[in-house]
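[job 0412] stage=complex_fold ligand=zinc ion status=START
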Amino acid sequence: MYEKEKKELLNICLEMIKHDLVIGSSGNASLRVGDHVVISPSSVHYTEMTIDDVVVIDMDGNEVEGTRNPSIEKPMHLEIYKNRRDVLAIVHTHSLYASAMAILHEPLPPILDELVPKLGAGIRVSKYAMPGTKQLGINVVEVMDERSAALIANHGAVCCAKTLKDALFLSILLERTCKIYMTAKQVGKPIELPEDVVEDEQDIWEMMREF
Ligand SMILES: [Zn+2]
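[job 0412] stage=complex_fold status=DONE, emitting structure tokens
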């Protein structure tokens, strides 16, 4: 089942490697199809993964199809889908600069015009929880309110969208913006966008979410 979606997921996992957002089998991705979630398997290197390794689960986490174990972060994916009806695809990465921000527990402020309409008015860091726990998912959902992304404390980042392609693009944008922010911080004190601009751009984010 869901052959087209599995192929798409496989392709996005390879793109995650290509863009240096993960290494080996780290990170994970999924997409929601009706009451099912198509999710990357646990511990399979993306460069060796085939569509037969992809797992289908239901919203309670039961395996519907597949021979592999689903990603260890299955509880986070399910927690996001259950709390955000607007989200149909999730990409979770361990990229360098986003992870650096996540270990500093440093949120990414609204510093660039291209950031806010796409990701929301500044990206927050979730409270720490162990990988693979439901609590990690709960903590992520909490800080992702009105946002398309979160930094996961001492771990990495997660981006959500309506398509896998968009979730991957947001992951690249988030990583790039974290890099810009940290580079700027080495030279001086970054200035945030004016408050009224952030409000207007956040309205655009809200509008885009409706589509
Ligand atoms: Zn992870």
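The pocket of zinc ion is lined by residues 27, 73, 92, 94, 131, 155-156 (CB under 6 Å).
[job 0412] exit 0
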